[in-house]
Amino acid sequence: MKTNLLLMLSLSALLAACSEKPQTIADYRGKVDNKPYDVKFGGDRAKWEAQLRSRVANQNEYRRMP
Amino acid sequence: MARMKFLCDAERCINCNGCVTACKNENETPWGMSRRHVVTMKDGVAGERSISVACMHCSDAPCMAVCPADCFYHTEDGLVLHDKDQCIGCGYCFYACPFGAPQFPHEGAFGVRGKMDKCTFCAGGPEPDFSDEEFKKYGRNRLAEGKLPLCAEMCSTKALLGGDAQAISDIFRERALNRGHGGELWGWQQAYGSDGKPEPGPAGGTKK
Fold first, then answer.
1. Least crowded by CB within 10 Å, which of A3, A50, B78, B176?
2. Minimal CA separation from B110 to chain A, in Å
3. Number of neighbours of residue B11 by Cβ within 10 angstroms
């Protein structure tokens, strides 16, 4: 029990620095932009990402050509 | 999907300027302005290399840091975009940018600076997606259509890659493995020589 608790605490302490700090600037004073997947993809980010992944794959001719 | 980036393979770029033309046509940028440039090193001598350069959508963007009007913002995909209505055309971003990405229209007899214009990764701007206003100010929003920047997608030799940084790095790595060299991309050694001294230019003088 004690070992588990210790393990959990140490893991949470270790992984605490694994997050990425947000790079959005706080003092941006312009208009708010909508997300690129809001209009055509109905807000479905996963669908938009899948579409982009297939477009990226088209840039690799080793995979594109037989 | 984390971070959108461009990657130009100097081993493949043939200085055709197709990316420049495609960008200009797609975004209908005015005369005298180009969001993308092809830069050639060692022009006309052995070892000549060209790379296509535009906004690199820096993670810690200097343009954003120096802008007195705070008109820049980062999208959640790492793109550096700006609000032209907020831009005052001061030109600080042009001085701060190491890639010469910010462009200014030269309107009027005295070359008065207008609103800054730069590569948007074909992602438009803060106006509503697909609106006329967005197109007039920022050009086409291909990203919202599920497409990548046209410069990269139409590159005939696939020297210019665009998209998720991890995905295009994987493409480049596979390419470098297949050809057995070129993993170094372009950089200090190709620009300045292996001994750290500039290599002789075409006219015999040193090339800076």
1. A3
2. 28
3. 17
